[in-house]
Amino acid sequence: MKYLGIDYGRKRMGLAVSDEEGRIAFPRMQFTTYNFLHTVKTLSDIVKKDLVEKIIVGLPVTFGGKESAQTVEARAFGEKLKKAIQLPIEFENEMLTTKMAIRGGIAKSKVDASSAAIILQSYLDRENRK
Q1: What residues have CB less than 8 Å from 125, skipping those under 6 apart?
Q2: Domains identified in the chain and CATH numbers
Q3: Mean pLDDT throughout 15-32?
Q4: Which residues, in sequence order, are CB contacts of 13 under 8 Å at separation 6+?
Q5: How far is residue 36's CA from residue 96's CA, in Å, rounded to a whole number?
Q6: Please, what is the angle between helix 36-50 and helix 69-85, to 10°?
Q7: Where are the alpha helices (DSSP H) in the chain?
Q8: Is the predicted pLDDT of residue 12 greater than 60, yes or no?
Q9: Does the global pTM surpass 0.85?
């Protein structure tokens, strides 16, 4: 199964895709989010081109494991996207993924895509251990 990972943001989103076996995540791209329709079009194109079967959205939880306003917003985005694209969507904790990408020496222009790959890889690792 092929997956799409999303590092959600109001201004930019990072995207990553998995290999066909759903074992390894690769940064795909990042883009500016103008509005929801533009975002759905961008994501739909990638879903079709890459034959994605499931979407994983990063969920920004606090260090205490609580939901914040950003968590609620990301969850609402995921639910709205699920209706628009009609694919299964799951959420994955994205705590510290941006810091991990920056510490890995990723250029600023690729940080969101790298964060999406970290989010997706975390999800894939957990799923593949089952």
Answers
A1: none
A2: 3-129 (3.30.420.140)
A3: 96
A4: 6, 7, 30, 31, 33, 39, 112, 116
A5: 26
A6: 60
A7: 36-50, 69-85, 97-103, 111-129
A8: yes
A9: yes
